[in-house]
Amino acid sequence: MSDDLAIVLTAGMVATACGLLGPLLVLRRAALLSDAVSHAVLPGIVAVFLLVGSRAPLPVIAGAAVFAVICVLLIDALRATGLVKVDAAIGLAFPALFALGVLGVTSFAKGVHLDLDATIYGEIAFTPFRTVELLGSELPRAVVLLSLVSLGNLLLLVLLWKELKLTSFDQGFAQTTGFSPGLVSRLLLIAVAVTAVTAFESVGAILVVTMLIVPAATAYLLSDRLVLMVGLAVAIGWIAAVVGHSSAAALDASIAGAMGLVASACFVLALAFAPRNGLIAVAMRSRRRRARLAQALAAGAERG
User: Where are the domains of the chain?
Assistant: First the structure.
């Protein structure tokens, strides 16, 4: 497998894993959850270093995953009180955990280069050099791991599609139908945390946050149907992966940055030209309404 293909496949699998969950986060107004997780994992990294004295990838990812799950459960618990909205819950939870991690670094790991950049903020250009042997073939480790995560996310959607859809649009009604919106929400948030931490080490936090939010927000402008939103989010993520990689190669620029820019360009195009929710469509509808109102007023004046 060529290096370029390995990079594109890795980014594409990130797009798939994130695109399956991103629309649900956008609908629940929890799109910045991935960014919160990227800061909240620091205590886990510090704990792993204190326990095993190592910054090896696997222990670090395990420790980060534990605190990522703690973060999303704390956010969900705050939201469930009904006293704060989910965006405020995110803003309350991750600064506390991040501050705990900073205290851990300054108190117990002085002089050690133990920060997020040194531990789980990966670089997608390095993915071809981290391989595993599978069925006699050398494959990029990130592609294998992210394929498993994508499969797990797809399984979650298939098994809980009705529940996830209902709790995303109307949690109040969901409670009257006999199942727990809180349990469904926690399972979704845990899946987001696992997806984010797994992808951080492979491609870096910026690309993960981009793939979770931007394709989903773009799909939200293009469709009102959840199943179509999910499909569009995955497709837009793959477009960003392929076109972004080609652009980065042509410009000798950052691969993750180019992919993020392409995803943002897709959003801008949807914002302007979406058939129903785009700025042009909204402006045209408003203009037609004003024209009809003017005609009605003119007709009324003539009759008067």
Answer: 3-215
